[in-house]
Design goal:
It is a single chain. The protein has 18 helices and 12 strands. It is α/β, with parallel strands linked by helices. The chain has 2 domains: 253 residues, 3-Layer(aba) Sandwich (Rossmann fold), CATH 3.40.50; 171 residues, Glycogen Phosphorylase B (Rossmann fold), CATH 3.40.50. The strands form 2 sheets. The chain has a 7-stranded parallel β-sheet with strand order 3-2-1-4-5-6-7, sandwiched between helices. It has a 5-stranded parallel β-sheet with strand order 10-9-8-11-12, sandwiched between helices. Helix 5 packs parallel to helix 8, helix 6 packs parallel to helix 7 and helix 12 packs across helix 16.
């Protein structure tokens, strides 16, 4: 079966799908990952085919509109801004989705593209299903993760979940109308399957009425399946990013790891920050105050643990023999060698830290990151979260000392990692795709 796996967003919204694509291909399916052109190398390294989408997510985050996210201090404010950002770019991706769908037998859709992708699948008469990295279906169990709030209480959580889904449908409304009109026009006289504008008006509700299947790529150990979810929504286990057999850590990093005790990883992934130099210096000072070595990942925020060798140093926050800056490296190879991981608590990095079996100090910034940070503390692998907006050297130092010097955190992390390795999240999706192929 020709499967198009469609996703949009940052690297963390793409990497888990490389492992899922690899597993589906090993199961005999022809898989194309449809996502931003900037992730072509990441996708093709998994052995999957690649179809590009035109939007550059990093450029959008670094634009004036993207930088505006940092001016919002509440989850609701950030959500409103990101909705505006998405509305400005989603129409540019519609043609790429339609083109890829025309050459596919089934569509697997991330949450970020589900409203548009589902409508396209209906018009083309293709089966589709969701493959989500976050729990977005309304529930009384917790508030929508994208709001950055743990809970408002059962009834309010449920109401907020429906409101968020409605807002997401509104983001895609114009692009979906345009795509559906083009498909209907092209199919005239050739037996269109279309539901036309009705499908656009009823996006989320249409999927619910169909009991549209959604697989969730996280562990039920981390987020138990809510008891009030409908049938067809499953929590299956993580989809791990695919690392090619030849993947290895850079020699410079290996030498650093071998030169002393296990360091602490610090990285904010695809998040951008207003003042990278100031934040980098704070992070390094906290690591040193805790008596720890550090590996700082540059990421999209431009963090650095060391100077460039041309006089560009930051005094007491600069680099040295105890600190190293790295670019993208496989977390699966690096994290098991860490004393702890400090990260923004994005869904993918949270999963990588849990898989490695090391303690965590989450520094959530926005959207679903506070939700995943709360899961880490509830699991007992983290002493606390230190949100970026309240980050100071003393608080981070205290959290680092607690995470690295109290054995229960590492013991619990090792226990969780062992249980995660026994799960097979990708296998559940493969079984569903096999079922579609048998028809």
């Amino acid at each position: 079966m020709r499967v198009a796996l469609m996703t949009a967003g940052s690297r963390g919204d793409v990497a888990p799908y490389t492992g899922l694509a690899h597993r589906l291909a090993a199961g005999g399916h022809s898989v194309t990952v449809v996502t931003h052109a900037s992730f072509a190398k990441l996708v093709t390294a998994s052995g999957a085919a690649f179809h590009p989408l035109p939007v550059d997510p990093r450029a959008e985050l670094e634009s004036a509109r993207g930088r505006g996210l940092h001016r919002s201090r509440t989850g609701a404010g950030k959500l409103a801004r990101v909705i505006g950002l998405a509305q400005a770019v989603v129409g540019r991706m519609a043609d790429g989705l339609v083109e890829s769908a025309r050459h596919s037998d089934a569509l697997l859709l991330s949450a970020s593209l589900a409203p548009l992708g589902h409508a396209v699948a209906q018009e083309l008469g293709l089966p589709s299903m969701g493959v989500y990295l976050q729990p977005l279906a309304p529930t009384r169990a917790f508030a929508p993760p994208v709001t950055g709030t743990r809970s408002w209480g059962g009834p309010a959580n449920l109401l907020a979940g429906h409101a968020v889904n409605h807002a997401v449908d509104r983001v895609f409304a114009d692009a979906t109308r345009t795509a559906v009109r083009e498909l209907l026009s092209d199919a005239r006289g050739r037996g269109a399957h279309g539901h036309g504008r009705a499908a656009v008006r009823t996006g989320h509700r249409a999927r619910e009425r169909q009991s549209w299947r959604v697989h969730h790529g996280f562990s039920p150990l981390v987020v138990p399946r809510p008891g009030d979810w409908r049938a067809g929504l499953t929590v299956d286990g993580y989809w791990w990013p695919h690392d090619p057999p030849e993947a290895r850590l850079p020699d410079r990093l290996l030498a650093f790891l071998d030169a002393g005790p296990p360091p602490v990883f610090v990285g904010l992934g695809s998040a951008t920050v207003p003042d990278p130099a100031r934040l980098s210096a704070l992070l390094v000072r906290a690591l040193r105050a805790a008596g720890l070595r550090g590996v700082v990942q540059r990421g999209w925020g431009g963090l650095r643990a060391e100077g460039t060798g041309d006089g560009d140093h930051w005094g007491e926050g600069g680099g040295g023999e105890d600190m190293l800056t790295v670019d993208e490296v496989p977390h699966s190879l690096l994290f098991p060698r860490m004393a702890a991981v400090v990260h923004h608590a994005g869904a993918g990095t949270t999963a990588a830290g849990l898989r490695a079996g090391v303690p965590a100090v989450p520094v959530p910034i926005q959207f679903d990151e506070a939700f995943w940070a709360s899961r880490l503390t509830a699991l007992g692998v983290s002493p606390c979260a230190v949100p970026l907006r309240r980050l100071d050297e003393r608080a981070l130092t205290a959290a680092l000392v607690e995470a690295t010097r109290r054995p229960p955190y590492r013991e619990r992390a090792a226990e969780v990692a062992a249980r995660l390795r026994a799960e097979d999240g990708a296998g559940a999706v493969l079984a569903s795709v096999d079922g579609l192929a048998k028809g």
